[in-house]
Amino acid sequence: xxxxxxxxxxxxxxxxxxxxxxxxxxxxxxxxxxxxxxxxxxxxxxxxxxxxxxxxxxxxxxxxxxxxxxxxxxxxxxxxxxxxxxxxxxxxxxxxxxxxxxxxxxxxxxxxxxxxxxxxxxxxxxxxxxxxxxxxxxxxxxxxxxxxxxxxxxxxxxxxxxxxxxxxxxxxxxxxxxxxxxxxxxxxxxxxxxxxxxxxxxxxxxxxxxxxxxxxxxxxxxxxxxxxxxxxxxxxxxxxx
Length: 241
Known about the structure:
This protein is mainly alpha-helical and 241 residues long. The protein has a single domain (3-233), classed as Rhopdopsin 7-helix transmembrane proteins, CATH 1.20.1070. The chain has eight helices and no strands. The radius of gyration is 18 Å and the shape is globular.
């Protein structure tokens, strides 16, 4: 298991335990869903998962790297969840659902079948130990561009929405952490997109892992710290913002 992935998984599990009461909070639910899905995505993309569950699926379907495809779908929904949180911070009113549907749900709903089409068009791939390091054929290049494009859009748009909240003193540290985590995710997308286009994926796989897991760990540590402080200020009584 890559060390950055191990750190991210530990951070995400710890954050989910600390934030276990947030599922009933509309303002916090999006971050918690994001953590859960990012954790699932990392687990599904791990080399050990590829060599076990991935190989099992390959033996029965003839299609390799299916665990990575599912993990990438988890990433898309996770990115939409963080964007939902950013929209809630800026627009906690009746316009929220309409904006979420237009700016988040529609791009994500459209991109998942497009990714599947590119993935299947590449043919019955061999099962890879690390999908980030696979030499990309033409259809996989388009697959990576579709995936990284929508993820970068969601994360960059989230950072854009979070930015004005930096001026609110009580939320400055939390929002700065979310912006930094989003930036790591955008960097992971940029590195992977460039490496796919220029066929240098094996060389850049460690950098993609580092930035992608830093994104998950950043959201985990920031959200856990924020919720712990919120709980502490409530003198042991968990409440909703």
